[in-house]
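Moderator note: this is an archived Q&A kept for reference. The question asked for a predicted structure of one protein chain; the sequence and the answer are reproduced below.
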Amino acid sequence: MSNQSWQLRLRNVLWSLKDNKKARLGIMIGAGVLGVALIIVILLLLNRRGSGNGSDSEIINLNAEINEEENIGYRFIDGVKVEQGKENIYPLAVMIENYAEVRPQSGLQKANLVYEALAEGGITRFMAIYASDENIPEIGPVRSARPYFIDWAQEYKGVYAHVGGSPEALSLVAGLPDLVNLDQMGQAQYFWRDANIAAPHNLFTSSEFLTLFLRDYALQEKFGTYSPWQFSSTNDTSQSPVAQKIIIPFSSASYAVEYNYDRQNNNYLRSNGGAPHLDKLTNQQITVANVIVQFVPTSLLDYETGRLQMAVQGEGRAVVFHNGQATEGKWRKTATTDRTLFFNTENTEISFTPGNTWIEVLPDDRNIEYN
């Protein structure tokens, strides 16, 4: 058939529609439906692309079985692949001191999560959270409790190990329904003191001693009941790093924290007080997959002792570092036992890189540097 015949037919069809209102209406409706469907498809595609912190297709389904034959799953606390049955081990939180003269500490590298915040006199303190089955022969030095660390520990609904604490902390931790209190003062059999180190900086525990505590208190069969964060299966390191160095000024030079990005291994090397921060068990510099800086309202609780109080419930400013990138945003904690969540400026929950995370908690009148 010639091109002229096709053109004549098309002209006749279009001309017939001129006086056929039903046909015109049908075409208009069909075009409208097609347009709406096209818009929906485009929006879905854009949504799957996400905001640069891990799209829907990249977010790890922690409850999914990777491969039944390989018997592998994802660990809830840090998104790391583990043997099935070990994804959601009951969490143990241990208070560890950071007095400059006691470094290096033992067992910090093996922690899945570490909180660092000021205690008294500009000295910071750690709360290390363990939710794996790794053997850790020494953890410490173990130190005393503070109320805001207890507030964070309640998010994990596990064990909180410490030696004594401030009056406010001891009053708070007594009888909490979602937190098992393990205080060396009264439960000394799960700790030991190193005679070669001066007290009170010589108290230690271990994964073996903590496991004995779980057995003795019929907790060895329990699993975690906390809400896990999101983790991304795609760690894009192709972009030029914009956060190769992070400087966090807690107080004096002895407690200044610095992280330097190692692109080859896609992690951050931690320094404390101007020197590489080592773990005594390995004599290696501590490495971190995710660094979170959380700014919280902080005030003086007791003038004589210098004890602080921190408002860790509500929301505030935060910066998240991973894959050599920095994401400005905010943190939010809506209830005492709710997990603190982190969001970007578009209010999208941030997806983390599988691996350990250090949460650096600063007073909200401080600033950090990164470049």
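Archived answer notes: The radius of gyration is 27 Å.
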